[in-house]
Structures are given as structure tokens and as C-alpha cells.
Amino acid sequence: MERIYRVGLNGETFYASERGGELRRLNGDIFSSYSSGAPVAGGLGAVKLLAPVTPSKIVCVGLNYKDHAAESGKPLPAEPLIFIKPTTAVIGPGDPIRLPPGVGRVDHEAELGVVIGRRAHRVPRASAWEYILGLTCVNDVTARDLQKKESQYTRCKGFDTFAPIGPCVAAGLNGEPRQVEAWVNGRRRQSASTKLLIFAIDHLVEFVTFVMTLEPGDIISTGTPEGIGPIAAGDTVTVKIEGVGELMNPVVAEESV
Q: Can you tell me the distance from the alpha carbon of 153 to that of 130, in angstroms, rounded to the nearest whole number?
């Protein structure tokens, strides 16, 4: 397993790979063929972590944990409930989540993200992992009061900064259960294993790619467990996923225009 980071250093943006505590530049294309290059002096402490990929879309899955469906007061879906976050919502580690003025309650939602590694169209479930580059952390930030007012999720999920992803793409993993957690100001709010997913990762790849073609770097965000809760300006939100890493973002109030 290796962790692939997209980083900034001295005005340059590049990919780097961390194995055994050492960070090295990557040569080539992470979506086709690449090799390990020179060490990065100072390691992760010397670079700025950026969103690890630039997806053309993030396909999110709603109500994919039974307990979250229960806390939301909604029935279990018979098939995956999907919606899309725009690319303009994407931010990276350490970037602020900006709370729009007048939208009411805004919640964190910790989720496991599946990063697509090659163009995927109508992929059978048995072949799903052949199309996956790796896993990442996603915070599906949601304007909850707006969500309750509407039947569609585009507005409540699509604000700028409402899709923090990172800190890396953990490549070489598989579908074994992983703990997904959300922490706010050092207190754990969400914690559940992906073994509780209603629709597993391979099922989601098959389902989504029957509807739409996924491009390299696109993300399927697999749903959030119970424990969703509000965030406020001044908070710090951390999504932790076992074997993947930790994604931290501060929360700030967006000034009225």
C-alpha cells in the first residue's frame, strides 16, 4: 500500500508517494504509469497538501448506512440513492469550509471516497476493483435546513467548499472493512465500520457506471454513518478513515456580499 499525495512546494504542484515514512516525487501519470523519483526534502512537513485529485464529478450515495437512515427518519433505499457534488465544491486538507450566510444549520458527514483510476463505463461488479485507484476521505458537508426544504440535494450539498477531500489516495487497498470517523474540536461524533454499508463498493461501481461514465480521478463517496451534527465558525472538523488517513478542515463564516 502507498499513499499518493498531490502537493505544492515553492510554487510547483506535483504528485508524491509516501511509503515507510519517506516521501518521493512521482514521475509519470498516476492514472496510467508512474515511477518513484527523488526524495522530497523535509517530507510531508515541507509541502502543502492539496486535494489529491481534481474530479470531474463526485458521485455521492445517500442513506447507505441503516443507522443513518434511521436518524434521518427515512426508509432504507431499495437501490443506491445517488447525487452529484460539483467540482467547485472541492477543497483540500487544511482549506476552510465556508458557511454561507443565511442557510441555517450546516452538518459534517464523514465518508469513505473511492477514487476511480481509469475510464469506467458499465463495469460489472466482479471487475469493479480493476477500475479503482484507491481510497480517500470525504466530508459531504450539507446545509441541513435546506435539505429538509427540498426533494433534490443539489443546492444543499453543492455550495463552494462543501466537498473537502484528502489527504491522499491510499492505493493498493481492497474492500475490507474500515472504520469511518468524524471528529469536531477533538470530540468524536461519528464512528462506524464500512462493513455496515448497505451497498458495498463493488455494487456502487457497477450501479453508478451503468448510469454515467466515470473518468480517472472521479470519486464515489459511499455514504455517511449515524452521528451527523452541526458545525459552526471556529470549529475544526476531522474525517478519519482506518488505513487511509486524516482530513482536517477549519470552519469559517463566509461574509455576506
A: 30
CB distance 154 to 177 below 8 Å: no
With 0-12 CB in 10 A as exposed, 13-18 as middle and 19+ as buried, what is 139? Answer: buried
For 79, left (φ over 0), alpha (ψ -120 to 50), or beta? beta
Closest CA to 17 of 26, 27, 29: 26
- Beta strand 2-9 with 229-230 is unpaired
CA 24 to chain CA centroid, nearest Å: 24
Select from 60, 86, 87, 61 the least CA-distant residue to 76: 61
Cα 16 to Cα 2, 56, 82, 112, 244: the distances in Å are 10, 21, 32, 21, 15
Cell of 15: 504528485
pLDDT digits (tens, 9 = 90+) for 121-176: 999 999 999 999 999 999 999 999 999 999 899 999 999 999 999 999 999 999 99
Handedness of CA 208, 183, 248, 16 (dihedral sign): negative
C-alpha dist (Å) from residue 114 to 20, 24, 138, 173, 240: 23, 23, 9, 11, 15
CB atoms within 10 A of CB 80: 21
